[in-house]
C-alpha cells in the first residue's frame, strides 16, 4: 500500500467526461492498494498521514 500526498490549487475527479468531485486549494491523496493489503496497513498509513505537517 502506498500513498502520495500532493498540495493542489485545484483538483477534480472526472468519470466518463463528467466531474464527480472537486476541491479548491488543499491536499490530494493518491492511494494505491494491492491485493493482500489489510486493515493494519490502512490504519498505519492513515496514522502516518495524519501526523504530517
What can you see in these coordinates?
By secondary structure, this protein is of the alpha+beta class. It has one domain. 23% of the residues lie in helices and 47% in strands. The protein is built from 1 helix and 4 strands; from the N terminus they run E-E-E-E-H. It has one helix at 39-50, and strands at 2-8, 11-15, 18-23, 26-32. Strands 1-4 form a two-stranded antiparallel ribbon. Strands 2-3 form a two-stranded antiparallel sheet. The longest helix is centred in the C-terminal third of the chain and has 12 residues, at 39-50. The chain is flat, with a radius of gyration of 13 Å.
Net shape: flat
What string gives the helices and strands in order?
A: EEEEH
* Class based on secondary structure composition and strand pairing: alpha+beta
Our count of helices gives 1
Biggest beta sheet attributes: 2 strands, antiparallel
Rounded to the nearest angstrom, the radius of gyration is 13 Å
What order do the strands of the largest sheet run in, or round the barrel if closed?
A: 1-4
Helix content: 10-25%
Number of strands: 4
Could you name the ranges where pLDDT drops below 50 across 5 or more consecutive residues? none
Could you tell me how far the N terminus lies from the C terminus, measured between alpha carbons in angstroms? 21 Å
Count of discrete structural domains: 1
Mean pLDDT: 95
Amino acid at each position: 500500500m502506498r500513498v502520495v500526498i500532493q498540495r493542489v490549487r485545484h483538483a477534480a475527479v472526472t468519470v466518463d467526461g463528467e466531474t464527480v468531485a472537486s476541491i479548491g486549494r488543499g491536499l490530494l491523496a493518491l492511494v494505491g492498494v494491492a491485493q493482500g493489503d489489510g486493515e493494519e496497513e490502512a490504519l498505519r498509513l492513515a496514522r502516518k498521514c495524519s501526523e504530517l505537517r
